[in-house]
Design goal:
Strand content: 15-25%
Number of helices: 26
Radius of gyration: 30 Å
Distance between the termini: 54 Å
Largest sheet: 6 strands, mixed
Length: 763
């Protein structure tokens, strides 16, 4: 299409109409100008295409298709290639189904394990979420299908999600809740962004100019379409002024009338409306240019892909030698999820799966000797003594038992948050009773987020499948019996109990107001800073083989923050099985004036190694790897100092490390007042120069001939002699915390001199 030509031919009413949907899933068309409607679909882990009247909550039926692992599982792969393969497959299916935009991925941060939609989000870490999001977006869009990244921004709970207010300071917003979106915009070139329902610091996302224009378009250079979450608009005209392009699902047309009247009255310039229409038309034009509705899709191949991805996403959390199980061993499969696994979450992402394979069916298809007992009822939790007794007897008569447990559908769904991290009590009791009669007991977990594990010390092995898609049963069996080697790493810390979570006292807030008082200390950033014991740390995951890390190298000992640092190391598979290892690179600011986490993830790579094979792995770190967000600059800032580069198998399993000195090229601005302290002075070059002169004035020939060290020692002695021995530290702290006004009080300068000093320092 010639977008600019069409724009001139559109009536005001047609322009307004193009800024809202025709129905639940289509934009409006303008037949006389050859503008077709474009279809959007939910589907971060499987296409949810609805024909005719639709809905956005997963209630109505959708086409039969393939369900892949959900985001919580995909992130545990720590593998960009996994997300690339998924994006490619979904893009091809969108083409076959004539879908122009896929609503996903969801990259909101996991602030609390209770968020009902956590199964749709990647991680508690913004770097990991952003990098995986980029792989998904790039591969999807390579197929000619636009990605719509969601939910922008700070959409971290389901309670009051359509009207809530996420309140946080500037540093927390920029350092934790925006970076993943920034990455997919700048690096992934996402063509669609979905704004969230909630408000950020009092302004709803759909009307938030700072968010949609100042940050998204001006700071990050975004050129794509901004669409609402379904029904998120509170004020359509204010949304248009803020940078919102398309409202979905569109409603009765009253919103279009508001836009027309606002333009006619002069409340909004038509050029503002034109820009929104231009963004909609470019999206439709891209869709038409890449459209391949005649292309087909091999769903059997997609099912196989779902199984392969599930294998790479599973996390072996604990193993004391019980796994892998030996074929020929008599094994008891216990639990309803062995027969009917929980493989996806409920809500707008719910996929009408073509077929679902449970572990019991898969094991029998593979000719494995497996008995079965139901053990519990997922939809009818309670004291089912007969099921428990049957399960215990079945386990006792086997050589090993595998209990398939996890969160039922009702525990984890869009629209409401969990109120506990506990598994259903009947499942906990089942596991505890099974272990009493069968020491070789393995627990397989199904669920989209962490749970408390009161029996963990008694169980020798735990395999977490998360919500692994429709082929999760086959994947689980292959992992249990060693046909595949587990390689997943958890993308969110598993705390010992809910009360340990940093958001515990401020989730889900009061009457829709949610205070993010934990600030930047989300997930492992909090647990590591407080040196807290956790159930499983961020990045943890075991294998059936062993990996040795060696040959750590840094390209430089000192760099400026405008330069990059190359980091390399070697990894060797020292075990007897082939396997994949996800290396993690963390950066630690050794000493900082700003409060910072102990370490932060700034790189990861997943590699496959045969037994005895070695491979060199490289990383490149730029300014952002060392920076924290500085509100005084409204930008990222590197404080000159020493940084530790750590290569790890998890956030608490550091294998290699080395130091680099990074020179910051920007000085943090400080506005000095009379109540600023001497310590504040020492933070800038000008301030340090003043203190040097004040502490070492020319005091006659003898003292003037003394060395700098002698003068400083003399000054310290003068301050500490009258305070008693051992008071050096006290004297130093008293000096650093002394307000500048006290220098006048002690007669070291006049009031006029202090005023002059402040003027020079603040220039």
């Amino acid at each position: 299409m010639d977008v600019e030509k069409i724009l001139k031919q559109l009536t005001l009413e047609e322009k307004a109409g193009l800024c809202s949907g025709a129905d639940f899933w289509h934009t409006k068309g303008v037949e006389r100008l050859g503008i077709p409607p474009l279809m959007m679909c939910d589907g971060p882990h499987g296409l949810r295409k609805q024909a005719g009247e639709g809905d956005h909550m997963g209630i109505g039926e959708s086409i039969e298709t393939v369900c892949y692992p959900t985001a919580s599982a995909l992130a545990a792969s720590f593998d960009r290639n996994v997300l690339h393969r998924l994006g490619e497959a979904l893009g091809q299916e969108c083409q076959a189904e004539d879908v122009g935009m896929l609503l996903g991925p969801g990259i909101n941060l996991k602030r609390s394990p209770l968020c009902g939609r956590n199964f749709e989000y990647f991680s508690e870490d913004p770097y990991l979420s952003g990098e995986l999001g980029v792989s998904f977006v790039e591969s999807l869009q390579e197929q000619g299908v636009a990605s719509c990244v969601k939910h922008f921004a700070a959409n971290n709970q389901e309670t009051r999600r359509m009207s809530g207010n996420s309140r946080m300071d500037e540093r927390t917003l920029y350092e934790m809740y925006l970076p993943a979106f920034e990455t997919v915009v700048k690096k992934g070139k996402a063509r669609g962004i979905m704004c969230a329902y909630n408000a950020i610091n009092g302004i709803f996302a759909a009307e938030n100019k700072e968010l949609l224009t100042d940050i998204l378009r001006k700071k990050w250079g975004y050129r794509g379409l901004v669409v609402t979450d379904w029904g998120a608009v509170k004020d359509r005209v204010q949304g248009l002024l803020a940078g919102l392009d398309l409202e979905m699902p569109g409603g009765s047309g009253s919103q279009d009338e508001k836009i027309v009247k606002a333009v006619q009255s002069g409340a909004i310039e038509e050029s503002v409306l034109d820009q929104a229409v231009r963004n909609v038309l470019h999206l439709i034009d891209d869709y038409l240019s890449a459209r391949r509705p005649e292309s087909g899709i091999d769903r059997d191949k997609c099912v196989k892909l779902s199984e392969e991805l599930s294998e790479q996403c599973a996390v072996l959390m604990k193993n004391e030698g019980t796994l892998p199980l030996k074929k020929g061993t008599k094994v008891a499969f216990i639990g309803e999820f062995a027969e009917k696994p929980r493989y996806q979450g409920a809500g707008s992402s719910h996929v009408h799966a073509s077929a679902v394979t449970g572990a019991l069916e898969a094991a029998r298809d593979m000719g494995l000797e497996v008995t079965f007992a139901r053990g519990y009822r997922a939809k009818d939790q309670g004291d089912h003594a007969e099921l428990l007794a049957e399960a215990v007897a079945t386990a006792a008569n086997a050589e090993a038992a595998v209990v398939f447990a996890g969160l039922p559908d009702s525990y984890e769904t869009e629209g409401c948050d969990r109120d506990t991290m506990a598994l259903p009590e009947d499942q906990n009791r089942l596991i505890q009773e099974i272990v009493k009669v069968q020491p070789d007991t393995v627990v397989v977990l199904h669920g989209g987020s962490p749970v408390e594990l009161p029996w963990i010390e008694d169980v020798p092995a735990v395999l977490c499948m998360y919500l692994g898609g429709q082929a999760v049963g086959r994947a689980a069996v292959k992992l249990l019996y060693g046909d595949q080697n587990p390689s997943g790493k958890i993308a969110e810390t598993w705390p010992l109990r809910l009360e340990d979570n940093p958001s515990y006292l401020n989730f889900p807030g009061e009457e829709g107001w949610v205070e993010y008082r934990e600030g930047i200390f989300v997930g492992y950033r909090y647990y590591d800073k407080k040196k807290m014991e956790v159930q499983f740390p961020f990045g943890h995951g075991l294998s059936y083989t062993e990996f040795e890390y060696s040959d750590f190298k840094l390209s430089h000992e000192t760099i400026a923050d405008t330069e990059t640092l190359q980091v390399t190391c070697k990894v060797t598979n020292t075990g007897e099985r082939s396997g994949m290892e996800a290396l993690q690179l963390y950066v630690r600011d050794v000493e900082s004036t700003a409060i910072r986490p102990v370490r932060e993830l700034k790189g990861f790579e997943k590699i496959m190694l045969e037994p005895g094979e070695s491979r060199e792995v490289g990383f490149v770190l730029d300014k952002r790897a060392f920076a924290s967000y500085e509100p005084k600059l409204h930008d990222w800032y590197v404080e000159t100092g020493t940084f530790m580069i750590e290569i790890a198998s998890s956030s608490r399993d550091i294998r290699l490390s080395g130091e680099v000195t990074v020179q910051g090229t920007i000085e943090k601005p400080i506005h000095y007042t009379k109540t600023s302290t001497v310590g504040d002075l020492m933070k800038t070059v000008k301030g340090r120069e003043f203190m040097k002169q004040m502490m070492n004035p020319a005091q006659g020939r003898t003292e003037g001939n003394q060395s700098k060290g002698e003068k400083e020692s003399m000054e310290e002695n003068r301050m500490t002699t009258s305070m008693g021995e051992g008071s050096e530290k006290m004297a130093q702290n008293m000096m650093l915390e002394m307000p500048l006004s006290s220098i006048v009080s002690f007669g070291r300068m006049t009031e006029e001199q202090l005023e002059g000093l402040l003027e020079v320092l603040n220039a």
